[in-house]
Amino acid sequence: MASDDAGTALESGSTAPVPGLAELFIGMLQVALSAFGGGLSAWSQRIVVEQRRWMTNEQFLTGLTVARLFPGPNQINMAVYIGTSFRGLPGACVALAGMLLVPFTLLMALGVAYFHLHELPAIDRLLAGVVAAAAGMALSMGFRILDQYRNDRVALALAGAVFLAMEVLHWRLVPVVLISAPLAMAWYWPRQQVR
Amino acid sequence: MSASVLAIALAPALAPAPSALLAASGAATTCHHVQLSDLAALAQVLWQFLSLSLFSLGGGNTLLAEYHHISVEQFCWLTDSQFADLYALAEAAPGPSSMIVGLLGLGAGWKEGLPWALLSAYGAEIAVLLPSTLLMVLACLRWRTLEHSPWRIAFERGLGPITLGILFAVGVKIVRTADVTRAGQLSVPGVIVSGIVCLLMLRTRVSPLVFMALAGGLGLLGIINR
Q1: How many contacts, defined by CB atoms under 8 Å, are there between A and B?
Q2: Chain A (69-98) residues lying within 8 Å, Cβ to Cβ, of chain B
Q3: FRET pair for A170, CA 20 to 30 Å: which of A97, A129, B22, B217?
Q4: What is this model's ipTM?
């Protein structure tokens, strides 16, 4: 992908030479460290596009589209996209490692501390509160994307059916998706002149 | 230990109120703890996460209800409140919140000692990321042909509403897991705080860490308890 842009890079004065595996790792590590406290995707844009000039903004946004479309956590898919664009599968693995190594190690340390301490009365009481806030965050996820389906009755009916299947009938996720996805895709299949 | 014993002793004092909603998820737990140092059991656990990977739509949060099912109901590595704690921990810590799988793995192997716990933590995280990563690599390499394919358009439009339904189910599931007393009853102050935080998350741009800290304070004061 980067080789195609070699010609246009001069005009827009943008992209730097293709990064090697070590550079990819360090770049993603830098993203992970900068993003402590949140805003991971904003930081990765700042570092990958503006600072290191590995990609144009347009390429980055294409990556976001792909990352959101395909299964897997968005930020992690974005690291895979960046790695793959330059170095294929090895690049993807290195970029992932760079992005996850520090946060995951920290989380493991937190987890070990949790399993040692969670039965202390003070910690348990603190967590009883924290957990209520976290549950509120979980509840907001659905509402966050609800707006875009406001005028699409089929979409709302589909979402409602999926919700009921999981919540009332206690169906597991895999059969729910395997049944509903083909139906939904058939309904939304682009007819004639899309584009 | 003393904390949970105390909580169990105190809990029946609360009114046996809206537990009907909870009965289905809480009561039917008849699982056996799996020894992960038995490699076959570890492989089975890793397979669970491997096979879920490609179903993580909409950024991965759609899998939370399945994670709960695996770690609380199917293999009983964790209690409901431990699951809720780990979810909060993963949300609060820096980095992608999908790293909760590592915490679940840690909990799964905890009884067998730290080395096994870490092994199952890393194993579970790698297992849940591997298939989606491979698919993503293929997608990147083939994006030019995929971009205008009708499959891509139908997939994007069709999976959106499904993701919406799943996210609502996941939200309700997490609330029912988190805002519960040890006796299995809905904690009314907890639900109220969750509702307020949900609203504030949608209406303001305040960092969720602020809400977690404030709610943690309410917990310490004993206003929210379990």
Answers
A1: 378
A2: 69-77, 80-81, 84-85, 88-89, 92-93, 96
A3: A129
A4: 0.86
